[in-house]
Amino acid sequence: MKLCVFQGTFNPIHRAHLQVAEYVYKNFDFDKILFIPAYKPPHKDYTPGMAIHRFNMVKLAVENRYNFDVSDIEYKSEEKSYTYLTIKELYKKYPVDGKINFIIGTDAFEKIETWYETDKLKKLVDFIVFRRTNNFSQQNYNYLKEKGYNFIFADLEFCDISSTQLRSRITNGERINDIVTEEVEDYIKKHGLYKN
Q: If we measure between CA atoms, which residue out of 32, 53, 19 comes closest to residue 131?
């Protein structure tokens, strides 16, 4: 199985996440794109009680797409969501053909050397990097190749959507159906998420 992982907070998942995953699936010949909502993101604030909502929203967003799946591997562990540990478990769980690929934005990739067990992680995955800014130069990342990180840049235009901005729009009562799927929007309304 050619496996690509899309790990993130997904707080909440939005159309840009899905656009990225669709692009990777269509252009890189993977059998599956596996979404993994983080339980306790190590580099972000953790809100108790939101983990199950974030997981449920990802499940709703991908459930009708046969090429996408969602994993509860980090939700079940109830520990900090360290990518290295998750990837090790995925190799045990799936018959992976070659290396697992890992979708990441330039904003996170710039900090990859600070990640838990990064020297071990870089041997387990190949990174597919998406630009998260308009002022983007591939040459700024050459030093990571020299340090043993294997990656390619996806040729997809920068899409200026962030979950932070989305949460702010929800808090302010603004329209969000242009940014999230109908199922996710209904879930947010039903559970009164991001109201304050």
A: 19
Report helix, strand or coil for 100.
strand
Number of H helices, E strands in the chain: 9, 6
pTM: 0.93
Strand, helix or coil at 122? helix
Q: How far apart (Å, rounded) are the C-alpha atoms in residues 36 and 18?
A: 13
- Per-residue pLDDT 10s for the chain (196 aa) are 999 999 999 999 999 999 999 999 999 999 999 999 998 877 666 677 899 999 999 999 999 898 999 999 998 876 778 999 999 999 999 999 999 999 999 989 999 999 999 999 999 999 999 987 767 788 899 999 999 999 999 988 767 688 888 999 999 999 999 999 999 999 999 999 998 7
User: CB neighbours (10 Å) of residue 14?
Assistant: 23
Smallest CA-to-CA distance from 5 within 38, 32, 34 is with 34
Render 25-94 in DSSP notation, one character per residue: HHHH--SEEEEEE-SB-TTS---TTHHHHHHHHHHHHHTT-TTEEE--HHHHHTSB--HHHHHHHHHHHS
Rounded CA gap, 154 and 27, in Å?
Answer: 9
Q: Where are the domains of the chain?
A: 3-191
In words, the CATH class of domain 3-191 is alpha beta
